Amino acid sequence: MKTEFLANISHELKTPLTPIKGYAEMMATRDLSPEKAKTFASEIGSAAVQLERVITQLVSFATAAAGRLQPMPEVVTAREVLDAAVARWRSRLPAGHKIDRRVARGTAPLHIDRRYVDQSIDELVDNAVKYSPAGGRISLTASPNGTSKTVLLSVTDRGVGVPEGRLDDIFGDFAQADGSSTREFGGLGLGLALVRSVAEAHGGHLTVDSREGRGSTFTMVLPAATGKRS
């Protein structure tokens, strides 16, 4: 699995580097109209964001693997967290995808490290986009967890789902929903392991409800802020 990971990382790093180098070279060697230059600069910026995300994922995973992931919690509302996630992703979604959010009545504020939870939601939304190539709605929801002093944050897609035989394996390090050598979807296989580590560092956990061909719901169980002060 680690050998496969090392092969994948080359692809994941080179993919955004290729347009960065290509567009930068054209801007340096050609006389471009302001409109064309602006388009090329935008493509460079988008690729740089993609590259930054891969590097951030690697650093965060290494931190978690070394046991140094120590959340610094603050009190924040679930609505604020999900609204920010929708705002980050609305302009980034491929054609055919839509994103929405719903916060159930009675959902308590969260007591979380906002940076790590934001990153975890981004990982789950990125997976939802990747594994629903035909498009569809991606839903972010927050709800109380019964009488427990926790809150459920979920990301749901209507995509390909996870094969039943892979459900026990997908949270592992370097894991992919499709573990074959001809797998259709890219990625480092670290996203779900990282999200799981973030949830567990908060004293919670990560669950999945998936049906092959019908989509998946990934849910982080996170501490509520009941009795907490920011």
Folded structure, characterized:
- This protein is an alpha+beta fold.
- The protein contains five helices and seven strands, in the order ααβαββαββαββ.
- The strands form two sheets. The protein has a five-stranded mixed beta sheet, with helices on one face. A two-stranded antiparallel ribbon has the order 1-3.
- A hairpin with a 3-residue loop joins β6 (205-211) and β7 (215-223).
- The protein is globular.
Give the arrangement of secondary structure elements.
Blueprint (H helix, E strand, L loop, with lengths): L1 H28 L4 H32 L8 E3 L1 H13 L6 E7 L6 E3 L1 H17 L5 E9 L5 E8 L33 H11 L3 E7 L3 E9 L7
Short structural description:
The chain is of the alpha+beta class and 230 residues long. It has helices at residues 2-29, 34-65, 78-90, 114-130, 191-201, and strands at residues 74-76, 97-103, 110-112, 136-144, 150-157, 205-211, 215-223.
